[in-house]
Here is the input.
Amino acid sequence: MGALQAEIQRRGERIFELVDEHPEPLFSKAGFYQRMMALSMRDEQFKVQLFRFVDVLASLHRGTDIVQHLDEYFADMRNGYAPLIRTGVRAAKILPFISGQVLRWNVSGMARQFIAGRNPEDVMRTLRKRRTQGIGFTVDILGEAVVSEQEANEYASRCLELLEHLGRETRGWSDPVGKNADLFPVVNLSVKISALYSQMNPADPADAIAHLAPKLRPILRRARDLGAFVNFDMESFAHKNSTLELFKMLFTEPEFRDWPQIGIVIQAYLRDAEDDLRDLLSWGRERGTRFAVRLVKGAYWDFEQIKSRQNGWGSPVFLQKPESDLNFEVLTRILLENESIVTAAFGSHNVRSIAHAQALADQLGIDHSRFEFQLLYGMAGPVKRALVEMGYRVREYSPVGELLPGMAYLVRRLLENTSNEGFLRAKFSDNVSETKLLRDPAELVAQSSDGARHLAVNRDSASLDTPPDDIYENAPLVNFVYQQNQDRMRDALAQVRTQLGQKYPLVINGSRVWTDKTIASINPSSPDIVVGHVAEAGIPEAERAVKAARTAFEKWKRTPFETRCRLLERVADIMHRRRYELSALEVYEVGKAWAEADGDIREAMDFCLFYAHQMRSIGRPRLTQYVLGEESYRHYWPRGVALIIAPWNFPLAILSGMTTAALVTGNTVIMKPAEQSAVVGARLMEIFEEAGVPPGVLNYLPGKGSVMGAHLVDHKDVDLIAFTGSREVGLRIFESAGKTKEGQRQLKHVICEMGGKNAVIIDADADLDEAVVDTIYSAFGYQGQKCSACSRLIILEDIYPRAMERLMNAAASLRVGNPEQPGITVGPVIDGTAHKRILEYIEIGKKESRLAFQRGAVPEKGFFIPPTIFTNVDPKAKIACEEIFGPVLSVIKARDLDDAFEIANSTEFALTAGFFSRSPANIERAKAELVAGNVYINRSCTGAVVGRHPFGGFKMSGGGTKAGGADYLLHFAVPRVVTENITRHGFAPETTPEFRDEFLGPR
Ligand SMILES: Cc1cc2nc3c(=O)[nH]c(=O)nc-3n(C[C@H](O)[C@H](O)[C@H](O)COP(=O)(O)OP(=O)(O)OC[C@H]3O[C@@H](n4cnc5c(N)ncnc54)[C@H](O)[C@@H]3O)c2cc1C
Here is the structure.
């Protein structure tokens, strides 16, 4: 054992000795809380239910509601405590008013264990008590989820008020250690940066900084005048870079450049923490004034894991707990070695991490009064006491606020306290030995990387049992948190700008075809800019395309499906290579915001890869049943010539999705993009050509839907029509295709995806932090021009006033503008016709209902429509029944849940529906009763992911097909079964192969 390790061991043992002098269980508050936590640690299912119940409780006001939720969360638990819990629930039901209040009181007690005070006056009691124990404080105001600028401004004023109060109340307080006191002001405020600006977008740190800096400066000035210290807390990874940049920018300003009483958090669980810390240190040296860093492991590990997995991103956090511990030690060394410029605060409850910092500081000759330990209020009390006794400086992180905004914080603390991986549970609950607790994390990292290898092997074999579509891994989204990705997008926008105005020919039978007429595709943000001129196909070109596709079909249908799958995969590769360029083009051509454009490219890639994957699973003739003496093989033949008619709102994804499904199943295709997005269509054709699509197999044919499109729909040689667009056109196609033309070989098959009038319901107990943000995004993201968009919001009476207030403030805070700028949520609508039509609907709305909110100024140039909200909307009103396809939201108040479901289901459409609730019973009802192809619970109702959320509606929204689903390809093919009697005079072979390939394609 090296000298440092020996010293860590010695220090650690000393801390434990002191801790054991005043033993305290993990959950110091006796009674209800202790019992709940003990149960949680024994039973994962109980823990989930308990934390969910705690999460909803603060928003419940009536005793009956509380007891009702208690029943729903716990009555059906299938564990050893079920009878006990059921008895409790039954008892609670007898006098719901009283039991509701008792429960509330108990859970408030739980929260009070972690929340130091409800308001500035209240918290002073705690701070005074700590002062007598030699413990300092940093105060944090709870309330991180701000959904509007109004809420952000309120947070800023509360910070100022708190500062004033603390300054006044702590006058005359002295430093508990009494040495180097100038480095550690008594008043210390921790600020959550995201609570100061509601529109923080990782893609646009400059905008975040431009909004945050003016809000922070008055707080900083006041803090400096009062001699206080201000710390920037660190939150999710998405906000990390903006927070660091903001910190450096503000404190380089002449006004604050020589102010040392400032600090920021570095999270050791992040893989790039070391780079960030080194960067901060060189910034600090250049600045020439001391600053502080609070080193922590990090509080959002589960969230980061979930988010990165869902989006296909590499995890920003370490995956093994000892890696975080080891990194904490690496960063501790860097901090202490740079003590001349940075003051370190070690934010940990882990005795090993603390002992390491102590031992290393000694080894480097740093006096223990020059750094401090920080621990959370309500946690690790004995460790705090021990550190004070050892003469170290201890500061307690003390959250202030009401129960409701404190819930997220409380749940984080509960998770941390009960985590299998956590130090506190290991020491104070599971009684893990001191030797184990003081082990060097470096040794554990080495051991656990072996473990990780085993895990990978197991995962592969586990996949054998999972259904085939489950193992599809989606293409990742671009993560605009990274500066390099922001730069690539900016470069692509500049590059694509130089290509605007080019001309694009039709492609028929592999040849470029120019026509007399062209379609000018314009930029909806700047209608004077032409994105491209695309040759317009007329009837003669349509005829040529059908002929080419018909001829090419003969060979394509016999091309092995593996060849067709590989074509799709090459297309996805090229899209990946040209990803930023394609996104930039969408920004110009259809007014998509960066992330929306990237989402469209990702979806297009997913369609290619997913359909290739699906085709491999249905491509070979497969035995239907094993029966002695007979063989039956089911397999699929292509239908023939497919006409693809796509919309402009997902210009690459929907066009590629329908096209690739048709091609991979062996059909040949005439691809007609929307006129408004014909340049994206031309790029897709280019990509297919580069990928090697044979001549005639895919033909690019932009033109007028009403003329050339209608001609093709009626054409006797077109066998299949895949359409996505408006109900009006969809129904016309459906009808036309139903009439058999002379010479037609087969029934035309129509795949028809149409619009929606999608409803989102906000239940009385919904989490408004989520419901408001997700509804705003569902209604106004991409200007409401998604068929999945929320256009009717149904709010339960009980929660209506609060939900509406927050919703309107959130809508007022949205960033509206030219989506060339990063971080814009609402851009222009697609063209002048749409602009006019939507404005007409707004006029109708003003007559039919109450205009509750309309955004003020929007850019004058371009087809911008201000986000608009109507209330008092009659469910039968025009604006509540017709698809508007713009940023217009109709809000309807519902008496109760029955009323809400009835309103939601009362339209002719059935595409998407959303439901926000924390009542398990109501959630179950919504799952069963909402009439929509895609029902989303507690999340936005847009943003379907290929494979994960097969997408499509029924009723007047479509024929029930599911793009991106396992059965989608079957619509592009005719199923066939070949049966052979293999018995000869009573004798039959005993084995039959599962697959045969002989009759794969028609001869
Ligand atoms: C005063 C103070 C202020 C804080 N401020 C912030 C802040 O601004 N921002 C912030 O994010 N956090 C902050 N934290 C940290 C956070 O809230 C936790 O308290 C802290 O991470 C717990 O670490 P520990 O050393 O006490 O416990 P330990 O039990 O040793 O470590 C637990 C930590 O390990 C990490 N971990 C768990 N499982 C894994 C795994 N499988 N792989 C990798 N890592 C894993 C997690 O980060 C977890 O929190 C603060 C903590 C304190 C004490």
About this structure: The two ends are 77 Å apart (CA to CA). The chain has 34 helices and 30 strands. Residues 565 and 612 are 5 Å apart (CA to CA). Confidence is low (pLDDT under 50) at residues 450-469.
